[in-house]
Specification:
mainly alpha, 3 domains, about 270 residues, 6 strands, Reverse transcriptase domain-containing protein
Length: about 270
């Protein structure tokens, strides 16, 4: 449930929960009350007592929802930790059998069992602006994404059988792997393309800045396939999905953006 004010009353929240319970009963989708928990995002003066069918809902400080590990501050360090922990077991097995398996097989294991786990929901948790590039030292990568950058580096060393402390860029180039910043950025651009083509749910389309609040021009120029961005007042908001991805879209070559608009839409 979403409320714009942190002063929302306990009665209003409980009434919303009752409405949710009635909806689930009407559609014969019973809730498992023992598994229902509550978590607040943002600053809340006090935690109200939440009731669902007379049962007190327990508060938690972390929760896994649709594969994403959420915290009250929406700090993705927990999610990155869990992703890295899950992938390290596969990487350990790769190291154990690297002298038996071929480079091609190890490469396929990485792309089948590690890369999909990293890429899942990366448009939400991975700020591609801070991911390490070819010219960026590992020490300057955003702190919470360092484990994922390190995981890819360790996997590259294992698959290529390179020595420890070998150049990260050379190891990736030998395997023809992309640095994680590139697929992360491309996934965001593809999602933006789907949003503008109406291929996503309405709650994503509705997040596109309205014409009156952003600019006096149309959202898309017919001549150069560019999206008119809008002004942001905080650096933190400037790195969120829409402002950041629109800027990346506008930075694409005209021929490439035209391919997205006309080639993929056929």
């Amino acid at each position: 449930m979403y409320h714009s004010s942190n002063l929302i009353s306990e009665n209003v929240l409980n009434q919303d929960l009752e409405n949710v319970l009635e909806w689930t009963e009407f559609w014969q989708l019973p809730l498992n009350l023992k598994k229902c928990v509550a978590i607040f995002f943002g600053k809340v003066p006090t935690r109200p007592q939440l009731l669902l069918n007379g049962n007190v809902i327990q508060y938690v400080d972390r929760h896994k929802h649709l594969g994403l590990h959420l915290t009250p501050k929406l700090d993705w360090s927990l999610h990155v930790y869990e992703v890295t922990k899950k992938c390290k077991y596969t990487l350990y097995l790769m190291r154990c059998f690297k002298n038996i398996l071929s480079t091609t097989t190890l490469d396929q294991i990485y792309k089948s069992y590690i890369l999909p786990v990293i890429s899942y929901a990366d448009v939400i948790y991975a700020c591609a602006k801070e991911i390490q590039t070819a010219n960026t030292p590992l020490s300057t990568v955003l702190a919470y994404l360092k484990p994922i950058a390190r995981l890819q580096y360790d996997a590259a060393l294992t698959v290529s059988d390179a020595m420890r402390l070998s150049s990260r860029d050379k190891a990736l180039n030998i395997l023809r792997w992309l640095s994680l910043e590139h697929p992360f950025a491309m996934h965001k651009i593809l999602l933006l393309f789907k949003i503008f083509r109406g291929l996503t749910p309405h709650f994503l389309v509705d997040r596109i800045p309205t014409l009156g609040a952003t600019t006096t021009m149309t959202l898309r120029s017919a001549s150069n396939n560019r999206i008119n961005t809008y002004r942001t007042y905080k650096v933190k908001f400037d790195t969120t999905f829409f402002p950041w991805t629109i800027k990346q879209w506008n930075a694409l070559p005209t021929a490439l953006s035209a391919t997205f608009l006309f080639g993929l839409s056929k």
